[in-house]
Automatic annotation (TrEMBL):
Gene3D superfamilies: 1.10.287.130, 3.40.50.2300, Histidine kinase-like ATPase, C-terminal domain. Residues 452-470 have a biased composition (Low complexity). It comes from Hydrogenophaga crassostreae. It is an enzyme of class 2 (transferase). It holds the Pfam family HisKA. CDD domains: HATPase (cd00075), HisKA (cd00082), REC (cd00156). Keywords: Kinase, Membrane, Phosphoprotein, Transferase, Transmembrane, Transmembrane helix. The chain crosses the membrane at residues 119-140, 147-165, 171-192. One of its GO terms (cellular component) is plasma membrane. Residues 232-445 form the Histidine kinase domain. This is histidine kinase. The modification 4-aspartylphosphate is found at D541.
Length: 610
């Protein structure tokens, strides 16, 4: 349904109604002040003309104007009408009728007061009506019918009275008033159109803003639903993969030295690849959730670059590439683990997309900053793709999603880490020539010698060691000197995971008790106390059956039975809120699927005395 609003074109009925409502509100906004000013003007003119002419018609006109003033309550009733906004058409009609009566009263003034032979008083009447018309026009310009009702009667009355007197002077005055009337029509029409158009533009902007807000709400809702879906899907995928990883580790251990051991090794390699993919997505969730917070310190770059060289030297050699690291004695202010992850992703990406030549990593000082550059002689990146490569899951020349090329999230993580660390990242590339990534870090002064400046030498390329819980994604066996806690209580409602965990830990001489809910855990603790065999550690899943909170359950169990009991949280959760909560808890955490070696090492560290 549409309707016509002034001369602005066809608009929808709802917008037309809103425009009318605002127009009417504007018309009645000045009723009180306009009535007071008009009354003072009328009584002043009446007093002056009666004093000059002593004509009874002056008193009659004053009385007529008094009747018009008595209609003020009829107009002021608009402000007392609670439904005025819904009755805009009624009040718009009321207003132009009131203006018609008002204008007719003033149009009668020249007929009742204009003297035949007194040019001064005649000119005063012309000035009063013209001035009144000019002054009141903006107040009624919102509605064209009100403009016509206000302007026409008083000016036609004035022109008619001037023509009636018939002298040349009166004719000239009548001509100028007619010209003024035409000009007033033009001005009034322009004002009316401008005000109406401004209202339409305002409501169109408001409607557009509402639509944008609705679209943003829909987009946010879809994004939240997508996040919940991926978090749920990731959790559900991690659960069985976690059991597979643990069972696979047991098989790998049992089949070591047998002919079937090679199959077990390939099985675990596939598990590690899938675990790496899940860890990469977990990294994205942790970065987006804000649970990764940089801990800045002054560090030397040389050990870190040497560690990265150790990580990727064999991979570059397999592709026939040269990997060169120009070590340096420079120090920088950064988070060493996050910076190492960032540089490892850049180097891994450079090797992946370089077919011949090599990769160069160098660092150099530039005033109070340090440039770390990763330069390759690879395929290069076209200009229209240089921004897209930082988007999650985007890969150039991989429409078939070849899993050997990864998920396409490495550079997305690089950008997030560069923003998190406030290390600006620049990209320069030419197709078939190569690519240069430049990272700018603040220069730091050398500090006293430190140990353990880098831990990456034993991590696997592309792993999520820092962000995903420190789990090495490569098959390995525990050190013979590793001391594991025993007995251990596992609180996990997944039967397969309980069986897998029991098989793994039992093979390493650990006595494990598996319970599926908090009440059973309390009974197990009580029985262990009675048997004088208290548990040496507690492992708990984050999400238990029927939505129970494993973190809270573990805290209650420790508070009741042993506040100093070593506690390890294992979870497949990836939702930002829960990741933030896990981080804030400060407890050790491993993310499913947990690699057997990472689990054993973590348990050993939990009982190692300082």
């Amino acid at each position: 349904m549409t309707t016509q609003v002034a001369a602005t074109g066809v608009v929808d009925a709802a917008t037309a109604q809103r425009v009318l409502r605002e127009q009417v509100a504007s018309l009645f906004a000045t009723v009180k002040s306009a009535t007071i000013a008009d009354t003072l003007l009328a009584w002043t003119v009446g007093t002056l003309f009666y004093w000059q002419l002593r004509d009874p018609l002056v008193l009659w006109w004053v009385g007529l104007h008094f009747l018009e003033v008595l209609r003020y309550p009829s107009q002021a009733a608009y402000h007392r009408d609670p439904g005025a906004a819904d009755r805009s058409a009624f009040w718009a009609n009321r207003h132009w009728k009131e203006m018609l009566f008002y204008s007719c009263v003033w149009g009668a003034l020249p007929w009742m007061m204009m003297p035949v032979d007194n040019l001064s008083l005649t000119s005063m009447i012309v000035l009063v009506i013209v001035g009144l018309c000019s002054t009141g026009l903006p107040a009624v310009a919102a509605r064209w019918p009100s403009v016509l009702a206000f302007v026409l009667p008083m000016n036609i009355g004035l022109i008619g009275a001037l023509l009636w007197h018939g002298s040349n002077t009166h004719y000239v005055l009548a001509f100028f008033v007619a010209v003024y009337l035409l000009a007033t029509f033009q001005i009034g029409h322009a004002l009316n159109k401008m005000l109406t158009d401004s209202l339409l533009a305002r409501f169109e902007k408001e409607a557009l803003a509402e639509q944008i807000a609705e679209q943003m709400a829909v987009t946010q809702r879809l994004s939240d639903e997508k996040t919940r879906f991926f978090a749920s899907a990731s959790h559900d995928l991690r659960q069985p993969l976690h059991a597979i990883a643990l069972f696979g580790a047991v098989l790998e251990r049992e089949l070591e030295g047998h002919s079937a051991g090679a199959h077990a090794n390939r099985l675990m390699q596939a598990v590690h690849v899938m675990g790496n993919s899940l860890d990469t997505m977990l990294d994205m969730s942790r970065l987006d959730a804000g649970v990764v917070r940089p801990e800045l310190s002054a560090i030397p770059l040389k050990p870190m670059l040497q560690a990265i060289n150790h990580l990727f030297a064999s991979r570059a050699e397999e592709k026939g590439l040269q990997l060169r690291m120009r070590t340096t004695e420079l120090w920088v202010l950064t988070d060493p683990e996050l910076l190492q992850r960032l540089l490892a992703n850049l180097v891994e990406n450079a090797i992946k997309y370089t077919d011949q030549g090599g990769v160069l990593v160098l660092a150099r000082a530039k005033r109070d900053a340090v440039w770390i550059e990763v330069i390759d002689t690879g395929r290069g990146i076209a200009a229209d793709n240089q921004e897209k490569i930082f988007e999650a899951f985007y890969q150039i020349d991989n429409p078939g999603r070849d899993r050997n090329q990864g998920l396409g999230m490495g550079l997305s993580i690089v950008r997030r880490l560069s923003h998190l660390l406030h290390h600006p990242l620049q990209l320069t590339s030419r197709p078939d020539v190569g690519t240069r990534f430049r990272l700018t870090l603040p220069l730091a002064q050398p500090q006293a010698p430190v140990t353990g400046a880098s831990h990456a030498a034993g991590a696997s390329p592309g792993s999520a060691s820092t962000l995903s819980g420190g789990q090495p994604r490569a098959p390995a066996q525990p050190s013979p000197a590793m001391v594991l806690p025993s007995p251990i209580l596992l609180l996990d409602d997944e039967a397969d995971i309980g069986d897998a965990m029991a098989a793994l830990l039992t093979s390493h001489g650990v006595q494990l008790t598996v319970v599926t809910h908090e009440a059973a855990a309390q009974e197990a603790f009580t029985q262990a106390t009675l048997n004088a065999q208290p548990y040496a550690a507690l492992i708990c899943d984050y999400r238990l059956a029927e939505g129970a909170d494993g973190l809270e359950a573990a805290h209650r169990l420790r508070a009741r039975f042993n506040p100093d009991l070593p506690f390890l949280l294992v979870t497949g959760e990836t939702s930002p809120q829960r990741l933030q909560r896990v981080r804030d808890s400060g407890v050790p955490v491993l993310f499913k699927p947990v690699v057997a070696q990472a689990l054993l090492q973590t348990l050993a560290k939990m009982v190692t005395k300082p």
